[in-house]
Amino acid sequence: MFPLRVVRPLPWLMGVIALSGALSGCDIVSKGPTEPGGPAPSKVSYTALGASDAIGYGSSAPCVPFASCPDGTGYVQLVARRLREANADMSFLNLGIPGAVLSRNLQTIGNSVGRGIPANFIDGEMPFVARDSTLVTVFADANGVNAVGAKLRPMPAADRADYAQTQLENFAKDFETFAAGISDRAPSAKIIVLNLPNLARLPYAAGYTEEERHWLRVLSNGFTAAINATRSSRVLVVDLMCHPPIYQPSVYSSDGFHPNDAGYRALADLVSAAIATAPAAPPTSCSFMS
User: Fold this and answer.
1) pTM to 2 decimals?
2) Which of 147, 102, 132 is nearest to 42 (CA)?
3) May I ask the CATH class of domain 41-289?
4) Which residues are paired to 46 by β-bridges?
């Protein structure tokens, strides 16, 4: 049920992830002393959190995890280039881990059904956010939707609704913890979060049964509602759920799940607009939710 085309962690990637765990008490970005009268600290410090979206998987130039990848064509790399054009002293830290989900709970659920999820945002990414970040972007959590969907499939039909509701409640609590953790770690950062589209309407779900698409819709809507609820003066939510262009098949790669270059450009444009001007509150209902 809901077979997500996940990037399986390679042995070298697992080594990098293990190293990052060993450094959980340290800042990844080290900064040397500033001499009196020397250059002012960077005015822009960008940290990106995410999964395969953060490395531009599905684009024409996907990146190696944790690399700055200046020529990448994912939305994170496009946003970083635009920021650097305006501020040559910009610092950039990409913490995205392909296949990651939001929480340890979702990681456990996914791995219990053989999805090979290597990490979660709360334990494996949030603790490394640069403390001087002025901008943090997050895209979560399509992998989590697919993990819960896979868990639902073998359950008796009578048990699925209760299990799904429990996971929606867990996600809401975990996302609130996640957003608060970023704020605590980087108190000066503007946090831009992209909510989820209705995954049941994406190309990869075209061959699913009505039941499978039903749970994709329920979970996508529930995760997005939880993300929208964290909106504040510092946590800005970019709406994908009710954004018509995000449902065009032409913005997806051949797997029907990951964006292609056009899709990543569309995401970068939305994030860039949110950096310039705080977006309006996401709609509470629209036709795409059904």
Assistant:
1) 0.86
2) 132
3) alpha beta
4) 92, 135
